[in-house]
């Protein structure tokens, strides 16, 4: 240290604090807020990204589950002793018809004894059914949402016998099993419902009461910690099942396949894609906000210290070295640093109220306030430290001896601009001028502005594409208002004649086999009335004998596109080579997946798909007639209203995210731009004064500043808009393909047409403010100040 | 040493009437100042920088203004150039009264009649030396090609042609001041105002610049120059002394022309 010592440092710090505490406090508040929001976004990203694994942990998720028919108890009994198994829970299962506006069947599961260590749904409302209450059930969230049932609802369950279940395809009379009234006492959350995990869960008392009437066993297994446990279990189960089938085949074999579900591996790729986009968006958000905050803080502090440069010169003359002078400034800012840290920490803490983003909210095991204390403490400390470090750096930079900036102008490049002095000086200052005396070069600002505009455009285009998808059911293969499952020709004929039906297609679907042995769901659609909207992601629908359309997701996994060919095995031997004429979005009748499978002409269907296909009738109602028609049909047909596939629903949950991102980016970038333009006059006061000295009129000064504003904004727009559209195109294509829908981007032309001129006009308008100030300040004063 | 081009370049152009309202008499003095007063509102007490200044500078005259620091020399120059407004009094340049002119008309007057040179150059670092000079010609209304041509000629005359593409930041003090002088001449001013043009230069640089002023005077340029240097002042025809905001007396020099 120099001669000053700590006493001098303290004295200088006191003086700094006295004259600058207001500015320091303001900067600390703003930086704490911005840092807190950025770190809070990290907390949110963490909560979003970990929602699924935390849920898996919280529900004690099983590794494998199987469903065994009630008439094969030997198989159920054999499962616990199969290789690879460490722990097993066996529940009883029933199928019941529930009362409601439409014909519905649900499966019910109940354990014989209470289990807590394997498959334990997170209760998001109410409680688990009581051990001794046979009339209490817990519903899965999805069935609760679909049926409009909640805690306290009473439902009547009319159970089916095993015999009735075996006649599911040919039809059976009213349910012949017991009927019981139950009360919904809770709503449960699991990573996935369905399959062996019944959407209605009851307790041991229910299981004991209806034991004679079960239709199957739901068995959940935890594997031993061995690397090949899954394979060994799968193989052993298949072997055992084959043996049992030999001895005593099940009457419901076709509905209870001997397949092993692996719930841990069952995350939909669309969910993963959505999650990546989500976390990616948050990361961009954090980076933009963090860098923006740091830049604003740095600039403000630099101005703060530069204004006091003379004081530092005096201190230097009195023998204080740069370390002591900087230390004094850091000491003066210590209190502000603490404030920044506390404000930041508080914001991070408050971010604990934010639920995981998008579809991931459905996986949150602990809904509601979830404080992340480590992040609060580390983030708060970090924000305070970064604040003080920025104080130190800017103080040291501002106190350094002034050196002329050496830039080598390129005289050749501006022939055109010479026409007009304002243009020459304006562009020069915008492109070469520095932000602040020693701040970032203007090029950095231009790059940052371009990226920000690109970000806004990309986010808006992505949001528009998401919105268009969610708002256009045909885009996800749900052009019909309702679909009648197992439609019979008599019903179809009646509907075609019904004036309330605008369009009707009869679909047939089954499984064809590609030449390499891969099974693939294949559909044909026969137009019976009107025209049903089908989303084409390219090409056209197949009509000819050798034509086929593929789903977007299938096209991506098979690596084919319009113009290629597909070889498919024929039912009676040999293969057919079909030409791909289009990419069409269809929803599977089997599992509701979007964009998989093939679409062929009805005649081709019979040649490629063995056995009897599943028929359905897709109905578009005349305007206004949909609800009444549905209510009528639902009384005696299994008819489903338009359903939003999970993958699309997950994407739908994201719609607001790009909008929020666009808004925040726009606000941050806009604030930066406004700041840059408003301070442009001050930054270039000397140059503007020189222009006046040379005889430039106030009008010419205004033009110069306007050119400067345009030269800042126009390149950012010219680069940013196409860049943003390009990025959105790539992102949307990936997201859409993973989801199985068309990957064409919805370009928000109208918005762009308004926003681009508006940004330009705004910049020009903003340049009037510094121009006005420049006109008010006599050049003599401006030159003296420079 | 002083060729025809330069003579043409630095020769005053006839006044094509800036303000039609003003009617200049046949051959008015280049500069007439009457009762000029200026008070700055400072933090403690108002500073009376000018307390009634009267001054006349004839066509082609070279006048040196001397006085202690803070006596109001720069203030006077700024008021003459219209870079700030006086509280009282009048200034006529080429017969045109400036105090009633609007900001725009004042700027046009400056563009047509006045060239300014400062102690600290005030060049624009983001532009080359050539562009700095051409900018002044452009502002004065020259066509782009003509402005570049004029800037090139001026830099050539001042011996700086090989530095034309260089940023002022890369030039020596003397070179920078010569670029600044070229810029002040780019609009062919009838009145050249210089505020301590040698103040920030070493003796070599000062000699270069001093020499330049003498040459300009010889081809008929009207000059009012603030200086602290008796040597530099000795090159002028007339020395005006200033103290506490008023002019004291005048000393006629020999108008020594080395
Ligand atoms: N913008 C201003 N605001 C307040 N006071 C000013 C301003 N400009 C000059 N002054 C004051 O007016 C007086 C005259 O200043 P001026 O710059 O004209 O002096 P000067 O003769 O040029 O001095 P120097 O030889 O040091 O350049 C000084 O007392 C100065 O402090
Ligand atoms: Mg002065």
From TrEMBL, chain A:
List, alphabetically, the GO terms of the cellular component aspect: plasma membrane
Q: Which GO terms describe its molecular function?
A: transmembrane transporter activity
The highest taxon in the source lineage is Bacteria
Q: Where are the transmembrane segments?
A: 23-45, 277-298, 330-353, 373-398, 446-466, 660-678, 705-727, 747-769
Specify whether Transmembrane is a keyword of the entry.
yes
One Pfam family in the UniProt entry: FtsX
Q: Where in the cell is it found?
A: Cell membrane
What the entry lists under InterPro entries is as follows: ABC3_permease_C (IPR003838), Macrolide_Exporter_MacB (IPR050250)
Residues in coiled coil:
none
What does the record say about its membrane topology?
Multi-pass membrane protein
Q: Which controlled-vocabulary keywords does the entry list?
A: Cell membrane, Membrane, Transmembrane, Transmembrane helix
Q: Where is the ABC3 transporter permease C-terminal domain?
A: 660-779
Q: Which family does it belong to?
A: Belongs to the ABC-4 integral membrane protein family.
What protein am I looking at?
A: ABC3 transporter permease C-terminal domain-containing protein
Q: What is the lineage of its organism?
A: Bacteria, Bacillati, Actinomycetota, Actinomycetes, Pseudonocardiales
TrEMBL record, chain B:
Annotated ranges, domain ABC transporter: 31-257
Gene Ontology, cellular component aspect:
membrane protein complex; plasma membrane
Which CDD domains does the entry mention?
ABC_MJ0796_LolCDE_FtsE
One molecular function GO term is: transmembrane transporter activity
InterPro entries the UniProt entry points to: AAA+_ATPase, ABC_transporter-like_ATP-bd, ABC_transporter-like_CS, ABC_transpr_LolD-like, MacB-like_ATP-bd, P-loop_NTPase
What EC designation does it have? 3.6.3.28
- Pfam families named among the record's database cross-references: ABC_tran
Which keywords has UniProt assigned to this entry? Answer: ATP-binding, Hydrolase, Nucleotide-binding, Transport
Top-level taxon of origin: Bacteria
* Root EC class: hydrolase
- The yes or no answer to whether the keyword Transport is present is yes
Protein name in UniProt: Phosphonate-transporting ATPase
């Amino acid at each position: 240290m120099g001669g000053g010592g700590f006493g001098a440092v303290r004295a200088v710090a006191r003086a700094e604090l006295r004259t600058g505490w207001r500015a320091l406090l303001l900067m600390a508040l703003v930086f704490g807020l911005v840092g807190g929001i950025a770190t809070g976004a990290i907390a949110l990203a963490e909560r979003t990204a970990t929602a699924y694994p935390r849920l898996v942990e919280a529900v004690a998720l099983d590794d494998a589950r199987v469903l065994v028919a009630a008439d094969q108890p030997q198989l159920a009994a054999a499962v616990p002793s199969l290789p690879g198994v460490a722990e097993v829970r066996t529940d009883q299962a029933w199928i019941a018809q529930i009362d409601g506006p439409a014909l519905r069947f649900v499966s019910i599961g109940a354990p014989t004894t209470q289990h807590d260590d394997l498959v334990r749904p997170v209760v998001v409302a109410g409680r688990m059914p009581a051990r001794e209450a046979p009339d209490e059930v817990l519903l899965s969230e999805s069935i609760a949402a679909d049926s409009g049932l909640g805690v306290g609802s009473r439902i009547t369950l009319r159970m089916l016998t095993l015999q009735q279940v075996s006649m599911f395809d040919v039809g059976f009379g009213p349910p012949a099993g017991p009927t019981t009234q139950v009360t919904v006492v809770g709503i449960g959350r699991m990573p996935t419902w369905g399959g062996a995990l019944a959407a209605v869960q009851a307790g041991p008392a229910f299981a004991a009461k209806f034991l004679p009437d079960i239709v199957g066993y739901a068995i959940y297994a935890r594997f031993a910690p061995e690397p090949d446990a899954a394979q060994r279990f799968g193989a052993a189960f298949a072997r055992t099942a084959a043996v049992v089938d030999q001895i005593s085949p099940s009457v419901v074999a076709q509905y209870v396949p001997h397949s092993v579900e692996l719930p841990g591996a069952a995350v939909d790729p669309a969910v993963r894609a959505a999650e990546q986009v989500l976390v990616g968006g948050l990361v961009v958000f954090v980076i933009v906000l963090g860098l923006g905050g740091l830049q604003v803080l740095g600039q403000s502090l630099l101005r703060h210290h530069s204004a006091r440069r003379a004081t530092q010169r005096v201190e230097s003359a009195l023998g204080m070295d740069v370390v002591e002078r900087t230390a004094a400034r850091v000491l003066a800012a210590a209190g502000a640093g603490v404030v920044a840290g506390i404000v930041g920490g508080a914001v991070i803490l408050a971010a604990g109220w934010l639920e995981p983003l998008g579809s991931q909210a459905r996986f949150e095991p602990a809904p509601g306030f979830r404080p992340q204390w480590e992040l609060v403490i580390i983030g708060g400390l970090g924000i305070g430290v970064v604040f003080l470090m920025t104080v130190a750096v800017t103080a040291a930079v501002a106190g350094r001896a002034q050196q002329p900036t050496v830039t080598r102008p390129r005289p050749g490049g501006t022939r055109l601009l010479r026409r007009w002095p304002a243009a020459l000086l304006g562009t020069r200052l915008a492109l070469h001028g520095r932000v602040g005396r020693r701040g970032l070069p203007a090029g950095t600002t231009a790059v940052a502005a371009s990226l920000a505009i690109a970000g806004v455009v990309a986010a808006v285009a992505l949001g528009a594409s998401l919105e268009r998808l969610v708002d256009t059911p045909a885009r996800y293969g749900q052009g019909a208002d309702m679909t009648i499952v197992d439609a019979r020709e008599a019903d179809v004929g009646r509907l075609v004649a019904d004036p309330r039906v605008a369009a009707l297609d009869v679909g047939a679907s089954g499984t064809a086999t590609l030449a390499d042995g891969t099974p693939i769901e294949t559909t044909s659609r026969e137009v019976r009335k009107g025209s049903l909207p089908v989303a084409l992601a390219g090409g056209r629908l197949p009509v000819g004998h050798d034509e086929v359309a593929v789903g977007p997701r299938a096209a991506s996994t098979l690596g084919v596109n319009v113009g290629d060919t597909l070889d498919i095995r024929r039912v009676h031997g040999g293969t057919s080579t079909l030409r791909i004429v289009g990419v069409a979005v269809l929803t599977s009748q089997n599992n509701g997946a979007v964009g998989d499978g093939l679409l062929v002409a009805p005649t081709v269907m019979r040649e490629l798909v063995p056995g009897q296909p599943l028929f359905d009738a897709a109905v578009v109602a005349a305007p206004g007639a949909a609800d009444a028609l549905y209510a009528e049909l639902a009384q005696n047909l299994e008819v489903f209203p338009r359903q939003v596939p999970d993958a699309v629903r997950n994407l739908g949950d994201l719609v607001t995210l790009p909008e929020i991102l666009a808004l925040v980016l726009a606000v941050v970038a806009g604030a930066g731009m406004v700041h840059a333009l408003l301070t442009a006059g001050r930054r270039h006061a000397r140059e503007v004064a020189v222009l006046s000295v040379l005889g430039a009129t106030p009008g010419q000064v205004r033009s110069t500043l306007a050119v400067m504003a345009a030269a800042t904004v126009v390149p950012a727009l010219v680069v940013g808009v196409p860049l943003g559209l390009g990025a959105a195109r790539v992102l949307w294509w990936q997201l859409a393909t993973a989801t199985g829908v068309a990957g064409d981007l919805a370009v928000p032309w109208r918005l762009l047409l308004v926003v681009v001129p508006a940004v330009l006009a705004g910049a020009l308008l903003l340049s009037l403010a510094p121009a006005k100030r420049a006109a008010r300040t006599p050049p003599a004063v401006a030159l003296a100040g420079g | 040493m002083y060729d025809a081009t330069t003579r043409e370049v630095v020769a005053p152009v006839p006044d094509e009437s800036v303000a039609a309202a003003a009617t200049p008499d046949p051959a008015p003095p280049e500069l007439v100042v009457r009762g000029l007063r200026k008070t700055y509102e400072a933090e403690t007490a108002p500073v009376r920088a000018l307390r009634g200044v009267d001054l006349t500078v004839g066509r082609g005259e070279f006048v040196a203004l001397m006085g202690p620091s803070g006596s109001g020399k720069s203030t006077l120059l700024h008021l003459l150039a219209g870079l700030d407004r006086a509280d009282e009094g009048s200034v006529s340049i080429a017969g045109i009264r400036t105090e009633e002119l609007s900001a725009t008309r004042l700027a046009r007057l400056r563009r047509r009649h006045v060239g300014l040179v400062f102690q600290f150059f005030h060049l624009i670092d983001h532009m080359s030396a050539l562009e700095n000079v051409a900018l002044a010609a452009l502002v004065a209304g020259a066509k782009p090609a003509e402005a570049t041509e004029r800037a090139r000629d001026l830099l050539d005359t001042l011996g700086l042609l090989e530095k034309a593409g260089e940023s002022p930041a890369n030039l020596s003090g003397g070179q920078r001041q010569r670029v600044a002088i070229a810029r002040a001449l780019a609009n062919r001013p009838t009145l050249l105002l210089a505020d301590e043009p040698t103040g920030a230069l070493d003796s070599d640089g000062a000699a270069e610049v001093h020499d330049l002023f003498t040459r300009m005077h010889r081809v008929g340029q009207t000059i009012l120059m603030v200086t602290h240097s008796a040597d530099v002042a000795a090159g002028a025809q007339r020395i005006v002394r200033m103290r506490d905001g008023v002019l004291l007396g005048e000393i006629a020099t020999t108008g020594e022309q080395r």
